[in-house]
Design brief:
The chain is of the alpha/beta class and 469 residues long. It has 13 helices and 25 strands. The chain has helices at 2-20, 50-65, 79-91, 104-109, 173-186, 188-191, 205-218, 230-234, 248-252, 275-285, 374-382, 415-429, 458-466; strands at residues 39-43, 46-49, 71-75, 95-98, 116-119, 129-131, 154-160, 166-172, 195-198, 222-226, 242-246, 263-269, 289-295, 299-305, 314-315, 320-323, 329-332, 342-343, 346-351, 354-360, 364-367, 370-373, 387-395, 402-409, 441-444. A 9-stranded mixed beta sheet has the order 2-1-10-9-11-12-13-14-15. The termini are far apart.
């Protein structure tokens, strides 16, 4: 008990020192050795102490050290268990692979990307699977300290590529540290004393950075659960202050008639938030929405606080934009490995006061704030025996946007057979695609419209969805 009390006192001193210094952040390499006070995570009224968290990381780390597999896929619904697996894998010298989903069919297809799986779920795979929580967590004293993190440690994430296949993104841990430091400095006066809650998954970079890396680097608690409904948000204890990590899709669906939680900071990313929605959220939560622009490849690039409809994006410190000979935009920042920076898929329009977004160059679109690869949808549909040709596109409508597909089939089918086939196609696509990527609008034609240059005639293709509804 005396040791625990000393640990807690030392942790509180560390927190106080960090706050006095301006919310300085701890790098991932020091998370196991620094005794912050207070809980690491919350699950309702249950609290997970830092000592317990460190013990679980250490126990799992030694299990991984004894296992020959190097690349471990992390597939978790619970953010606390995910954080244990992530840090244990890094300290054991393994490569954490974050597929971005927990779909068994896709994991089987991506099996060449990993050697084994860490999960809190149930899968039938050819790879070794280790489930958390471990059946018995030994006391930390039973284990020696885990090896220090390698200076070149990294995690692997995936994002939708222009060809439809998931594109691997290597993210050095030093870049995650730099991003947490950047965000802590930017919101220094609004993060202190808050629990981080999120409506987005930790399985993508936005959720990983904002929902886990940032609070762990600050010694502040995060909620283990992903918030899916307004009722969950409203039911949070009104005695606590929160940082809400969300998306435009969730914020658009908020039930503003419910009591509002005490949020000191609301962050949104994944797409642009309509101005009317930003105003409603501001009125309900008494805080402006802080929108983030960036990507898995680049990390955060710019921010804007929605106080007007035409608010311009402001680059974070150290972020620079430039155009190449083809007028494509490039971004360079401390969060992007390599001095050459990265070419962006977005069109930007700069003024002396900031910039606006102007659409994308590639065949990746945003639906409900999720990146959807049109090429991937086409590839999955072409694998169906009845489909001879297909083109997919985003259909924008005031009531509800979604994916539309134009299909050329191998034969003429009556309406009843077509209805049955569509149900079967949707069921098959659910094995591979996110719900927002399942086509909502279907058109059957004898041939895909093409122009005189033998390229797809997009005006005629789009007209198929708007001429008759």
């Amino acid at each position: 008990m005396a040791a625990a009390a000393a640990n807690e006192k030392a942790g509180m001193s560390t927190l106080a020192a960090n706050e006095k210094a301006g919310m300085s952040t701890l790098p991932v390499a020091q998370w196991l050795s620094t005794p912050y006070g207070g809980p690491v995570a919350r699950l309702g009224t249950q609290l997970f102490s830092r000592q317990q968290w460190q013990q679980e990381v250490t126990a799992l780390g030694h299990r991984l050290l004894a296992h020959p597999a190097r690349r471990w896929a992390l597939c978790f619904d619970d953010s606390y268990l995910f954080s244990v697996a992530l840090l244990a894998a890094l300290h054991a010298g393994k490569v954490p692979v974050i597929p971005g989903h927990c779909r068994e069919s896709l994991l089987q297809e991506q099996s060449s990307e990993f050697d084994a799986v860490l999960t809190d779920g149930w899968f039938t795979l050819n790879s070794p699977i280790l489930q958390l929580p471990l059946s018995a967590n030994a006391e930390a004293s039973c284990y020696s300290a885990l090896p220090a993190l390698s200076s070149d440690a990294f995690v692997v994430l995936f994002t939708s590529g222009s060809t439809g296949a998931p594109r691997q993104v290597i993210k050095p841990v030093r870049c995650l540290d730099a991003e947490a430091r950047c965000l802590a400095e930017y919101w220094v006066d609004r993060l202190a004393g808050c629990t981080v809650i999120a409506t987005v998954s930790h399985q993508h970079l936005y959720g990983l950075t904002f929902r886990l890396i940032l609070p762990l680097a600050l010694g502040q608690p995060f909620d283990c659960r992903q918030i899916l409904y307004s009722e969950q948000l409203s039911a949070l204890a009104d005695s606590e202050d929160y940082v809400l990590i969300s998306s435009p899709a969730f914020l658009r669906r908020l039930d503003l008639t419910l009591p509002a939680p005490r949020c000191k900071l609301i962050v949104s990313a994944g797409g642009e938030l309509p101005w009317s929605c930003a105003q409603e959220v501001n009125s309900w939560l008494k805080q402006p929405v802080e929108e983030i622009y960036g990507s898995t490849e680049t990390g955060v690039l710019a921010v804007r606080s929605r106080t007007s409809e035409k608010q311009l994006w402001q680059p974070f410190d150290g972020v620079n934009f430039s155009q190449d000979a083809q007028q494509r935009w490039w971004a360079r920042s401390p969060l992007i490995p390599g001095q050459q920076g990265l070419q962006l898929d977005d069109k930007l329009a700069f003024t002396s006061a900031g910039f606006q977004l102007g659409g994308r160059y590639d065949r990746t679109v945003k639906v409900e704030d999720k990146r959807v690869s049109l090429s991937e949808i086409e590839r999955r549909l072409l694998a169906l025996p009845q489909v001879m040709d297909v083109v997919a596109l985003a259909v924008r409508r005031p009531e509800r946007s979604g994916i539309g597909v134009v299909l050329v089939l191998d034969a003429d089918y009556d309406e009843k057979t077509l209805a049955q086939m569509k149900r079967e196609w949707r069921q098959e696509l659910c094995r591979w695609l996110e719900p927002v990527a399942i086509p909502r609008y279907w058109r059957i034609v004898n041939s895909i419209p093409h122009n005189s240059q033998s390229k797809r005639a997009w005006p005629q293709i789009e007209e198929l969805f708007y001429a008759a509804r």
